[in-house]
Design a protein that fits this description.
The chain has nine helices and 16 strands. By secondary structure, it is of the alpha/beta class. The longest helix is centred in the C-terminal third of the chain and has 20 residues, at 308-327.
Length: 333
């Protein structure tokens, strides 16, 4: 690594890379975006100039052949995640792959196997869980302040339905709201519960106007002890992303559970019979923290807190949710 900085290559110039991940990596003292690749060289050069990136490649293969690159970030459409993560691993690159990590748990397992065989790290890019507030939320739960856990509610919705050409609306490419945003409440519930759900039930609106992908879905994840996650997700509804943890003696309210764009937006509230208090958390860039977490793992300083096995487990739940929605039935895991 040059000057102890992890050298990153970006495979594809998706909006999430442009707006969030590239600036996040560049905001770290210990990581550097050294190259970007697109299948259109002019687009790659334009992106490199816009972000001050030294090298631009007109193919993903060229970037993977660059021996100076230590790790790659993959923000490609979902159906391309497996292929390019495996090819990156075979090229000796560590892999940060945009969520959902794959189209199903089987693909995720193949990616895990390839990365382990190559001796490289694999991380699914759920940046929200790198934010320190989730450790604080877990501490509040474990302290008993809100009593025994009774349930979790969450949602992640936005309205982009007018963009008919968007890759989110290509069924064979892994389009749909469960893949795109439903994965967040599912992942968060698993994180906070520290266990896997036993069964799922999901109802969804599949839109013929959008290649029959689920534009809205509402679901129930059943955990042991009668605790459940109730959630909804959508790409044809007003924007929101709250999370609520309900206990016998109180409730934790997280108004903006997955994105924290402004100072104070990461704060959450604890309501008990003693009153309602606001828990202030530092305003940090979760994308920067994600890159730094990856670097520490690559250097062997600490293991990834959520490795590829967690990504496989999350995909198993998403697989079950899609099956439930399509077949209109409860699916046991």
């Amino acid at each position: 690594m040059s000057n102890s900085k992890l050298q990153w290559g970006i495979i594809g110039y998706a909006k999430i890379a442009k707006r969030s991940v590239i600036p996040g990596i560049q905001g770290s003292l210990y990581n550097e975006v050294a190259a970007i690749a697109s299948r259109n060289l002019d687009k790659a050069k334009e992106a490199a100039e816009a972000h001050g990136i030294a090298k631009a490649y007109g193919s993903y293969e060229e970037l993977l052949a660059d021996e100076a690159i230590d790790a790659v970030y993959i923000p490609l459409p979902n159906h391309m995640h497996k292929e390019w993560a495996i090819r990156a691993a075979e090229a000796g690159k560590h892999v940060l792959c945009e969520k959902p990590i794959a189209l199903n748990a089987e693909e995720a397992a193949e990616m895990k196997e390839a990365c382990e065989k190559a001796g490289v790290q694999l991380l699914e890019a759920f940046m929200y869980r790198c934010h320190p507030r989730y450790e604080t939320i877990r501490e509040v739960i474990q302290s008993g302040e809100i009593g025994q856990l009774r349930g979790i509610r969450s949602a992640f919705t936005f309205n982009n339905a007018g963009d008919a050409a968007n890759v989110r609306y290509r069924k064979e490419w892994g389009g749909g709201s469960l893949y795109d945003v439903g994965c967040y409440p599912i992942n968060a519930a698993r994180l906070l519960m520290g266990q896997e759900p036993e069964a799922v039930t999901v109802q969804a609106h599949f839109s013929p106007e959008h290649d029959d992908v689920d534009m809205m879905a509402s679901g129930l994840l059943e955990f042991e002890g009668g605790v459940s996650l109730t959630f909804d997700c959508g790409m044809w509804a007003a924007f929101r992303n709250p999370l609520e943890v309900l206990g016998t003696e109180g409730v934790i309210e997280v108004p903006s559970a997955f994105v924290t764009p402004e100072p104070g937006s990461g704060n959450f509230f604890v309501q008990t019979k003693e009153g309602r208090r606001e828990v202030e958390v530092p305003h940090v860039n979760a994308y920067t923290l994600q890159a730094e977490q990856m670097r520490r793992a690559i250097l062997g300083e600490e293991a990834l807190p959520y490795g590829p096995q967690d990504a496989i487990a999350n995909m198993k739940v998403i697989d079950a949710c899609l099956k439930s929605a399509r077949e209109r039935t409860r699916v046991q895991l």
